[in-house]
């Protein structure tokens, strides 16, 4: 059975203010992270068309490139998570920014689908590290009473990066949009001056605590179950973003929307909603003094809005469809709250590993969700005319029910003291 203990003879770690350099850098890092993460969904049709892809291949090749990016994030989640606990939160925060910035600059030069795919894989590895390292650093640096507000700021600023990605993509074209994203990341590295390492991590390091042992998550039954529950909470968000929003043009046609639906605008309005949702979920968890109740309420709201998206938009106008994307974004605005809960469930020596792998495995669930969604659509319709609506209802409903069970059976972490380590 897993036990926890505070490192012996350790002074309480120093805490910092709500608008300190740590919070600002983590928020801006997540802003650039989201810009680069979502940019492909925004420029998918334009970039693939420019590379010679036409017709139904726009969907299949688009899903292939999304999967490559997600595989990179799965690999990067493990890599950066372990490094975050072994080498420190700051090294991961800035190392990941450097990698995905360079990869995205290179993305602006691609001339073939294969080049595009491998660079999305590399970018995915880089994108995997920023959020987990940033949330861990903020959670360990702020007083426990303010942690929720700190991660709320990180999320609210961060998700607005998707809106900038849309504006830049529309104004400058897809290649220049990748150049801008890479340039923003490199500029962000200049802000590392004045950002200090987590005091909790430094204490664990000084006491020679075994850190970043990824396999320790699998050698203890209760610890493994708790970790798996953390992963499952974030799956519905990536069902919404990775399928319902990324494939918005296809869903628009299936729903008989009276006009062509733009994938870029769907992403824009969804992430505009996420800004409000992340602010609301973070504030709600503080007001209720409960992470669990806030997440439960948002999952219930998400289920209601997904049903409305799938069944109440027959013959809608494109403007009405985008309004629904906005509301859908609000309903899944619990991303940073989910990562915060994952970070708060584990000790300092495994916290970065969990906080980095959990969101990336949740993001990476798209790799499994996409073929499940496609197979279900074909089974409920046909290979020639897949039923996207019914498949969305089944896959989305199951993922939401599992996530609700997961958060309902995890311990409450609001106000929890994080200055402890995991031992076995």
UniProtKB/TrEMBL annotation:
Signal peptide: none annotated. InterPro entries: MFS, MFS_dom, MFS_trans_sf. SUPFAM superfamilies: MFS general substrate transporter (SSF103473). Its main location: membrane. The chain crosses the membrane at residues 21-43, 63-83, 90-110, 116-137, 149-169, 175-195, 230-249, 261-285, 297-315, 321-343, 364-382, 388-407. It is a multi-pass membrane protein. Keywords: Membrane, Transmembrane, Transmembrane helix. It is found in: Membrane. Residues 22-414 form the Major facilitator superfamily (MFS) profile domain. The keyword DNA damage does not apply. One of its GO terms (cellular component) is plasma membrane. GO terms for molecular function: carboxylic acid transmembrane transporter activity. This is MFS transporter.
